[in-house]
């Protein structure tokens, strides 16, 4: 399977409360986003990689990977979906085929395993829609009422956590995101845009340690994991 990769990296990481966006915080000897990019670089089938950066980004240019000719960057947008759309549009404008696969992966997920990437690509290679890495929820879920008390307990077996990469056809994903955003629908991942377009993305079970670094303890946990 051949595919493009789009990495949204234009967020500010407010929940991390650090001195810079979380994708630029150190993990071992390098920035978090460099580990994320390494999950894709040098893999068979990769056609190219687009990183979506904030218009006021001050950190990317200082990274070694900024001069890597395999990586191009575009200016992202206000929300994650706007950033992803900018990346997809850049690929289409460069003449990428609408039928090509594109994998969208959060810059803040540096621990994607080669096995998960391989499974995703293999499982979806012939899929008419595409899909995403996801993990069945492990804890019992609670629906909160307005008073901060439990309103109900849904059937846990139906629920999955949506991870990335999410893999769809470039043209279909671009159109779905564009229309969902134009319609004012809240879009927090690529699959939800495809769902809004009437498609049912496939869930591909992945490892639970492909976490999105969101809070300080997530980065501490990953640092320990890497020794
Ligand atoms: N992202 C983006 N453009 C935005 C917002 C987010 O490209 N306008 C990216 C982030 O850089 C991150 C990924 O989308 O790699 C997942 O978003 P999230 O974890 O919410 O990151 P932030 O928005 O940066 O963090 P926070 O919500 O805590 O501010
Ligand atoms: Mg965010």
Amino- and carboxy-terminal Cα gap: 33 Å
Strand content: 15-25%
Number of helices: 6
Provide the CATH top-level class.
Alpha Beta
What integer is the average pLDDT? 97
Low-pLDDT residue spans: none
Q: Mind explaining what this structure looks like?
A:
With 227 residues, this protein is of the alpha/beta class. The model has no long low-confidence stretch (mean pLDDT 97). 27% of the residues lie in helices and 24% in strands. It has a single domain, classed as Spore Coat Polysaccharide Biosynthesis Protein SpsA, Chain A, CATH 3.90.550. The strands form three sheets. Strands 5-4-1-6-10-7-11 form a seven-stranded mixed sheet, with helices on both faces. It has a two-stranded antiparallel sheet with strand order 2-3. A two-stranded antiparallel ribbon has the order 8-9. The protein is globular, with a radius of gyration of 17 Å. The chain is built from six helices and eleven strands. Helix 2 crosses helix 4 and helix 4 crosses helix 5. The site of cytidine-5'-triphosphate (CTP) has 22 residues, from strand 1 and helix 2. One of its GO terms (molecular function) is nucleotidyltransferase activity. Its EC number is 2.7.7.60.
Features:
single chain; 227 residues; alpha/beta; Spore Coat Polysaccharide Biosynthesis Protein SpsA, Chain A; 7-stranded mixed β-sheet; two-stranded antiparallel ribbon; 6 helices; 27% helix; globular; binds cytidine-5'-triphosphate; binds magnesium ion
Please outline the helices and strands.
Layout: E1 3-9, E2 26-27, E3 30-31, H1 32-38, E4 46-53, E5 71-75, H2 80-93, E6 101-104, H3 114-124, E7 130-136, E8 143-144, E9 150-152, E10 160-169, H4 170-182, H5 190-196, E11 202-205, H6 216-225
């Amino acid at each position: 399977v051949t595919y493009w990769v789009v990495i949204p990296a234009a967020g500010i990481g407010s929940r991390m409360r650090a001195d810079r966006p979380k994708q630029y915080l150190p993990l071992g000897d390098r920035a978090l986003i460099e580990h994320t990019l390494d999950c894709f670089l040098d893999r068979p089938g990769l056609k190219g990689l687009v990183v979506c950066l904030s218009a006021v980004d001050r950190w990317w240019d200082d990274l070694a990977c900024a001069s890597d000719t395999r990586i191009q960057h575009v200016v992202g947008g206000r929300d994650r979906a706007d950033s992803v759309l900018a990346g997809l549009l850049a690929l289409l404008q460069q003449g990428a085929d609408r039928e090509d696969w594109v994998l969208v992966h959060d810059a803040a997920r540096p621990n994607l395993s080669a096995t998960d990437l391989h499974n995703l690509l293999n499982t979806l290679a012939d899929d008419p829609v595409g899909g995403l890495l996801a993990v069945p929820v492990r804890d019992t879920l609670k629906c909160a009422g307005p008073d901060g008390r439990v309103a109900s307990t849904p059937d846990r077996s139906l629920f999955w956590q949506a991870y990335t990469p999410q893999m769809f056809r470039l043209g279909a994903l671009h159109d779905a995101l564009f229309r969902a955003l134009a319609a004012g629908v809240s879009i927090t991942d690529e699959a939800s845009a495809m769902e809004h377009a009437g498609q049912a993305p496939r869930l591909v079970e992945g490892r639970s340690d492909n976490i999105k670094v969101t809070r300080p303890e997530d980065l501490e946990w990953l640092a320990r994991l890497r020794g």
